[in-house]
Amino acid sequence: MKQKILVTGGTGYIGSHTVVELQAAGYEVVIIDNLSNSNEAVIDGIEKTSGIRPAFLRLDCNDKEGLRTLFGSHTGIRGIIHFAASKAVGESVGKPLAYYRNNIVTLLNLLDLMPEFKIEGIVFSSSCTVYGQPDILPVTEDAPVKPALSPYGNTKQISEEIIRDAIHAGLPFKSIILRYFNPIGAHPGAEIGELPNGVPQNLVPFLTQTAMGIRTELSVFGNDYNTPDGSCIRDYIHVVDLAKAHVIAMDRMLENKTDEKLEIFNLGTGIGVSVLELIHAFEKGTGVKVPYRIVGRREGDIEKVWANPGHANSVLGWTAHETVEDTLISAWNWQKKLRERGIQ
Ligand code: UD1
């Protein structure tokens, strides 16, 4: 058995997949989640996938005393992977204070408590949103951080700065910041996956719900961008590939594989895929047609962004392996599983 790790937001989409990979690598996982955008049944899905039931406590990271009690009772936690955050770009524009509180105060609470409980490292979930529209593609980690287009994006930038300043001040922990591109898909066992509340804002859950007939048609937000087919380009990465990078990052910090106190890595495939290409890849992979219609641009969308994952490839020894087609098939299998269970 390796060490004990706290995963905040561990019943969420990326969190649950990461818990499974941590368990497979021998880590003992403690999950906390306020269940604001997930539910406790995800713990069953994790257990069915990995064969191990993780410890779970319903707790909000805004509750500092609750965190202190947790660290006091679950002694020996050596690392934290901090997923717990709000992530809806549009919602953040209407509720900025909730976003700052939920995404910034929670991080401050964890960082405050880490020295007290001798927690050695924190992996932080950041986003390619910090690059805005990069001037050079594929984008590397040293590309400039552009002014954020939403409070959500700003919380990721501010969080990165808080971690940087804390490490610079000599606080006794390490951090690895992971900048995710667009995670999609689900675990091959289809016991865990993405389960958005209400109408999905992100492309793939909307697409699979449309293919299932839950939504009548998918709106493609714009075909007049400066891209080969006019639709936006993103770097879609299988969530399991993404999850595995977290295990490598945690190993790296706890096994002292580096002297660096703070490192930043892009997690993407390095391949840009347009919205229309993604729809066609889904149709080819699954044989299911997706009714779609071109509509106007969505405010705040970046035209094109994809990763240069070379730094993660060479330093972490990590590469995204899954093709976009296989990844979309996994998303479809998850959607079908939800239907079988009568959830969606
Ligand atoms: C956004 C954020 C990202 C955040 C992620 C999680 C930005 C620039 N990106 O990613 O930081 O981590 O959400 O919520 O703020 N699309 C359609 N029809 C739809 C839905 C989406 O055409 O119904 C298109 C979008 O215009 C975009 C692509 O699909 O080009 C992907 O959109 P989405 O899945 O929402 O992710 P991002 O906007 O890239």
List the helices and strands and how they pair.
Layout (H helix, E strand, L loop, with lengths): L3 E5 L4 H12 L3 E6 L7 H10 L4 E4 L5 H10 L3 E6 L6 H6 L1 H21 L4 E7 L23 H18 L5 E7 L1 E3 L18 H9 L6 E4 L11 E2 L1 E3 H16 L7 E6 L5 E2 H12 L5 E4 L14 H7 L7 H17 L4
Parallel strand pairs: 1-2, 1-4, 2-3, 4-5, 5-6, 6-11, 7-10, 8-13
Antiparallel strand pairs: 9-12
Helix pairs in contact: 1-2, 1-8, 5-6, 7-11, 9-11
The protein binds uridine-diphosphate-N-acetylglucosamine (UD1).
Describe this protein's structure.
The protein is of the alpha/beta class and 344 residues long. The chain folds into 2 domains: 4-185 and 236-267, 3-Layer(aba) Sandwich (Rossmann fold); 203-234 and 270-340, UDP-galactose 4-epimerase, domain 1. Helices cover 40% and strands 17% of the residues. The chain contains 11 helices and 13 strands. The chain has helices at 13-24, 41-50, 64-73, 89-94, 96-116, 151-168, 203-211, 239-254, 275-286, 310-316, 324-340, and strands at 4-8, 28-33, 55-58, 77-82, 121-127, 174-180, 182-184, 218-221, 233-234, 236-238, 262-267, 273-274, 292-295. The strands form 4 sheets. It has a 7-stranded parallel beta sheet with strand order 3-2-1-4-5-6-11, with helices on both faces. A two-stranded parallel sheet has the order 7-10. Strands 8-13 form a two-stranded parallel ribbon. Helix 6 (151-168) links the parallel strand 5 and strand 6. It is globular and about 55 Å long. The relative contact order is 0.14. The model has no long low-confidence stretch (mean pLDDT 97). Bound molecules: uridine-diphosphate-N-acetylglucosamine.
